Amino acid sequence: MPRHRHRLPQETMSGFTTTGSTILTEIESLPHSILFWRSLTHWLGGMGIIVLSLAILPMLGVGGMQLFQAEVPGPTADRLKPRIQDTAKLLWGVYVILTAIETILLMAGDMSFYDAICHSFATLATGGFSTRNASVAAYDSAYIDWVITVFMFLAGVNFSLHYYALKGRIGEYFRNEEFRFYLYITCAAIAVLMFMNQGTVYDSIIDNLRYSAFQTTAILTTTGFATADFELWPVLTQYLLVFLMFIGGCAGSTGGGMKVARIMLLLKHGTVQLYHLIHPRAVRLVKLGGTPVPAEVMQSILGFFALFMGIFIAASFLMAASGMDLVSGAAAVIATLSNIGPGLGSVGPVDNFAHVPAFGKGVLIICMLLGRLELFTVLVLFLPSFWRK
Fold it and tell me: Is 364 left (phi over 0), alpha (psi -120 to 50) or beta?
């Protein structure tokens, strides 16, 4: 791939951070070995970063548990075992089982084993790399769309809940407040998209449900697959999809974004603050699962939100300075900062990132890394006090 060598840094970072924003063209002309490795980087990056970095971050003074909290953020992250190594093994086991099940189901839909395993890697890692130029749309199969939709949804769920489900405790899903909120967001977004698209984009309710459910799940879970050019959909539906880009998957999933747990707690915090304006003497706490959220945790979440938005705004201006229009530049930033892949404008679902200026590519590589490692894990390295410890 001599002509693609200058593109490898971004493609590699996009793979391991499960972003899926490709800069390669004519994907189907590439050797199967290259495309398999490209998909495998997703699968390894989805959860492997926890295990791979256990021997690295302790040398820097960060420690394994800090990284585990970065990949499995939020106060509800389940510590299935007292040692992080044991937890990683359990989660990897769940990861392998789900990948195998999806591969078998895709093969039942007339996908070759090669295509099935590559798309399973990308789905469970919420990556989005495909072996086809037209992504999943190339198969034009309702069955394949629904299988991938279901597994994208599962990939956006806290993997500890999958572990409990495999142990026969399926009720743990609905006892988890974050999962219930995640399910609500997904269903509500699908309903809104269907309402906006019915009669304007799709005449068939079945087709409308199929494409609306697929794109909602692909964007919310930050997988980034595409079966339709949603830039041709009504403008309000595009605004909704952009909003979903900021949310991302659940804490403890392979999804990117700010995470459902943080968004849920931010909304609860806002509600409590409004209540205190009306009843200043009242005592009302932010709770998650019936347990009060410690003030320091809430401050950390507020700090993360402010930092996330600050990086998004600053990086968007840098993309504009590189020569991209504001919409495309901002879309490219949120698509990489939330590890999604496609955005809007010139980096939309039927386009790629090959045309992005060199400076812009550098900005996006940094956004991918920051987004995958939850911002703080990377930025703390630039604090002088960190190195004096």
Answer: alpha
